[in-house]
Fold:
Amino acid sequence: MVWQKKVAILVLLVVCGLQSPTMGLDKFDTEAGYKSFIENFALSRLPDPTGDAVAVITNSPAIMKTALLFWLHKQRSDAATQEDWVKEKRYTAFYNCLSNPSNCDDLQALESKKSGATIHLFSNVPSADSSKFKSDTYQEVSIGTTNYDKTPYHLANPYIGTVTVQQSQKCFLAGDSAGQTGWIVDNFLLFEIRTGMETKRLVCGAVDPVDYNGERVQQVGLNKFGFTPGEIDLTEYFPQGVPVQLKVSALDYGGSGSVTDVYLIIQ
Structure:
């Protein structure tokens, strides 16, 4: 029973570590991957000696993986019951990555460290006639226009993730991960920043007045297609040190639509 107790202790310690979304699980499906994970993460939380615990866990990877999956499933179910969608998304990201190491994109998107973060909101979508995008509308959004479509449509899948802006950090948009180039959108980006039960919405780009379920949405920056790096500064709209659920949509509403690479830079 000694080895079983050690497995249980190690699993609990690793589970505690799952409160941080920055650990790497992308090569977790081999014995070598488990050993690397244990030696680089779990063992930092164990008192010496730990050699026999390592031997047990590396020889029993299925036990550890099953235990973690069971725990994560319960946590995300509890979060959903409590309608805490930020936590639910976080646990689901860990669960998906652990279940299938090739499905870790959502987990990587959750990374937001005190040293800063670079979040790739959109990859380049070349300019095309708006008819190409009209099948994917955003029904809750309406545009005050008489010349184009009143209901906009997505240019790409929305970005959804958890973001934390720490005290003294800035949060702005750029066209590359270094924050050095500009970006373009035709027509606009819609930001939805959720903290608890409150959601704040903002738009930027070349757009007529925007409403969300009948409520006017604030526009940030000048009404135009292209922006220099840092020109759209969103710092004041994020609470400091508080994780928020962020959804960003790139939307078009007639003529032609496009968006270049867009990054959210936190530094």
